[in-house]
Design brief:
The chain is of the alpha+beta class. 34% of the residues lie in helices and 18% in strands. It is built from eight helices and eleven strands.
Amino acid sequence: MTRDALVGTALAGYTLLDRVGEGGTATVYRATHPTHGTVAFKVLREKLRADKTAVARFVREWGFGAKVTHPNVIRTIDAGEANGLPYLVLEWAPGELLEHYLRQNAPLPPDEVASIVQQIARAVGAAHAAGIVHRDLKPDNCIYDPETQTVRLLDFGIATATNATADQRLTRAGFFVGTLMYVAPEALSGEIVTPAADQYSLATMAYQLLTGSLPYAAKNPREMFAQLVKTPPTPLNKANPDLIFTDAVEAVVMKGLARKPDDRYPDTVSFATALSEVLATPFPANTGGGLLSKMKGLFGR
């Protein structure tokens, strides 16, 4: 493996200890600082440093992240440029990406699903209260600590202000931002989205947490795009042949996935609260798998 040239170096007073991840826009390092202690140090990828839009989004992540203060949101500490490298410093949180945890453990028990969805909803609610739509809710943008069942939201890189005008957008008309598997149908036009789009993404995550599957199955992005525009999502009770959910659970999840924003819940916290209530009823879902799960789900109707 080629050694990362930045590992072991110091930038802006932060000593980069090791590389812990790399996404489409940035490389993430574990770093230490005399005042801040252990932190996550993000550096914009080299191929994007000449892209004005990418740099603007990176800077905007700092601005939006700093505005949202909540126990379930990763705290934004610092930002700047060192040796020509745009960087962003975030609070270091224990745990792993929720995506990794899901890959190993989904479908999850109903009480754990309720807890995760509630925490993310509160984090997103804090962003909405600050006038910010996240636009990229997905398991890859959440840190999860299974020992404490604590979830922390991160990455405001493609967030937008709820009062943004067309001229202030960093998305060209006819294009969308986000991750196609989790994006709300209305976002596919590239128009300004509302907090309801985040609720749709959270409902998609809830669907995945409960079933281990996504509401749409497509072979490629083009097919996924077409399904999101024209086809209703797969009903919750048809997602996994080994699981049957109560009518109430299915109704809440599918309402969160409604195609029209006005047909969803008033906000993400309302969605999460409704889901928690129906998952708390006897034999709601996901309690054992196989025939036992199906029997319990039927008796819980």
